[in-house]
């Protein structure tokens, strides 16, 4: 039973991947443990992310018209496949709740400290629910509009602020122990690049159905470039003080001073950031409700939008007691936990499918 009739093309998929990767990375930049070499850790993390993405790209090409929930039942059988699918959907759902918490904390801390985070969360989930109800085609069209606007604004603000850069802050180069640098690079791979494993729920709706690896390479590479340039700006503007800020990239942008434009630039920046968060939450939300509907053989996934949205909001409030716990989880626990779903799940699934000669494409 086909629950989604929408179709997206390769260009839209690139923008979707970019918006998803930039997502919460614009407010919580990856690779910060590498200090003033965080920009390089991001590039290395993108390289590892490309390797992981290659694994689930081959898997998606082997089952071109099926989501992860659908090909799990083929590869593992109906019972074990359901267990694997439940675990994968839990990862997507839990990640969606964490990203929601990231942005409710960001908005509540920076813009509306007197507003309860629950109210902010309801507003974000409501906006995402509306997009999810419309389907993958509308979500993709939203990315085509929002992602280029974000990138253009980023480049304009970058050029306007470049005269305030102190490039001495980028030195000494690679002054952290190698194991710490590699840990930062791996952290950048798992957050955010390899998180596009969730697109195993979206790849079947690509038209034409033959997924090109160049699409993922383009999406990851462009995103890595934007995040690396952002890291360079943060270090060049804030120097060693970047480590004391919860949202260093936002703090760096707040220092953009335009004498001919008397307005609070951080408000525009914040709106720009939130559009990327909206895209990431929406994609995770969509993948969750679509997967649950396929798992239970429902006729329409839309009936799950409200209950899943309520649960995602509740979990976002319960996951962490404060921002510090959230950041510690992202730095220590998540790179280990996420790799199970980002790399090991698709690798084992692909290996079993190849041994059993399952799937349409046998490359």
Topology:
Layout (H helix, E strand, L loop, with lengths): L9 H16 L12 H25 L5 H8 L2 H33 L6 H18 L1 H26 L16 H13 L22 H26 L9 H7 L10 H31 L9 H14 L4 H33 L8
Short key terms for the protein model shown above:
12 helices, 69% helix, Amino acid/polyamine transporter I, 363 residues, mainly alpha, transmembrane, membrane, single chain
Outline the structure in words.
With 363 residues, the chain is an all-alpha fold. The protein has a single domain, classed as Up-down Bundle (Amino acid/polyamine transporter I). The protein has twelve helices and no strands. It has helices at residues 10-25, 38-62, 68-75, 78-110, 117-134, 136-161, 178-190, 213-238, 248-254, 265-295, 305-318, 323-355. Helix 1 (10-25) crosses helix 6 and helix 10 crosses helix 11 (305-318). It is globular and about 60 Å long. The model has no long low-confidence stretch (mean pLDDT 90).
């Amino acid at each position: 039973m086909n629950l989604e009739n929408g179709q997206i093309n390769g260009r839209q998929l690139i923008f979707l991947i970019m918006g998803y990767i930039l997502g919460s990375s614009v407010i919580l930049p990856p690779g910060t443990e590498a200090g003033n070499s965080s920009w390089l850790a991001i590039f290395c993390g993108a390289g590892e992310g490309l390797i992981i993405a290659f694994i689930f790209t081959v898997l998606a090409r082997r089952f071109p018209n099926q989501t992860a929930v659908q090909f799990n039942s083929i590869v593992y059988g109906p019972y074990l496949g359901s267990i694997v699918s439940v675990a994968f959907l839990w990862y997507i759902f839990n990640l969606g709740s964490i990203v929601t918490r990231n942005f409710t904390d960001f908005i509540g801390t920076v813009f509306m400290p007197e507003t309860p985070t629950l109210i902010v969360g309801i507003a974000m989930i409501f906006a995402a629910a509306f997009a999810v109800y419309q389907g993958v085609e509308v979500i993709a069209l939203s990315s085509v509009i929002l992602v280029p606007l974000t990138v253009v604004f980023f480049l304009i603000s970058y050029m306007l602020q470049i005269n305030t850069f102190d490039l001495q802050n980028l030195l000494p180069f690679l002054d952290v122990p190698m194991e710490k640098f590699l840990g930062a690079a791996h952290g950048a791979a798992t957050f955010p690049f390899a998180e596009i494993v969730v697109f195993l729920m979206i790849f079947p709706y690509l038209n034409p159905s033959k997924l090109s690896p160049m699409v993922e390479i383009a999406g990851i590479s462009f995103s890595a470039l934007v995040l690396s340039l952002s890291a360079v700006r943060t270090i060049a503007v804030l120097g060693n003080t970047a480590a004391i800020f919860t949202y260093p990239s936002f703090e760096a942008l707040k220092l953009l001073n335009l004498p001919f434009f008397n307005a609070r630039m951080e408000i525009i920046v914040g709106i720009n950031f939130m559009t990327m968060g909206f895209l990431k939450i929406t994609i995770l939300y969509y993948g969750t409700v679509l997967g649950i509907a396929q798992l239970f053989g429902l006729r329409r996934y839309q009936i799950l939008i409200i209950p899943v949205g309520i649960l995602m909001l509740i979990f976002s409030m319960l996951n962490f007691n404060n921002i510090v716990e959230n950041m510690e989880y992202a730095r220590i626990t998540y790179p280990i936990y996420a790799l199970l779903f980002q790399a090991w799940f698709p690798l084992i699934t692909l290996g079993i499918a190849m041994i059993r000669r399952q799937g349409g494409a046998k490359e």
